[in-house]
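So, could you explain this one?
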Amino acid sequence: MNFKKIQHIYFIGIGGIGMSSLVRYFALNGKNIAGYDKTPSTITEELTSLGIDIHFEDAIHRIPASFLNKKETLVVYTPAIPENHTEYNYFVGEGFTVLKRAEILGEITKKTYCLAVAGTHGKTTTSAILGHIMHAENATSFLGGIAENYRSNLIAGGDKISVNQIKDSIAKDMVRKILRLGKQDSADPIVNLQNISKFFGMGRSKGSQKIMSVDDIDQAISEAIINNDRD
């Protein structure tokens, strides 16, 4: 995706901790930002103080006129919104480019040396520490919480290195794929230690790149999972 061609970015769920880091990022990069959220919060107050237009009524007439040009507007939404959300369905129905937060974050970081943090507990703390360390290397970090020393969930930097906290839902889906068991009538696991090790080692086997694409991950997972039907 070429963000240079996009002038306006509209966020549905703009006050979310993950969404707002993207808002700050695009605002710093000179984009015209506006959005909707269900309720006011400290985050929406901070974003408003940056000059960002935010409203709290799910209504098409509240969308600023400059964001109604689908050729120049990108719409970013959180999956937390209901399926009958009026603004979301308007943008989809009118043929706007409408993408999830995770997809946009992937577009931003896919050409960077990305340090992604996943797990059950401590992701936000670990990401904040890593982001602080990598700030000296001019990394841009998207955090899942407010880092006190930066007073932000975005640590702004360059476009070569990024730190990204992976959401629980994405991490859990990967774990399910890796550790998935066989058919319900089989008690034997279909994953062995050797193949799991191979999966986690792929990122180190790609020379200087050291980054796994989505296709790489899917391929590694497929190779790690043994099909019981072969036996």
User: Anything to note?
Assistant: The domain at 3-105 is CATH 3.40.50.720 (Rossmann fold). The chain has three domains: 3-105, 111-165, 169-230.
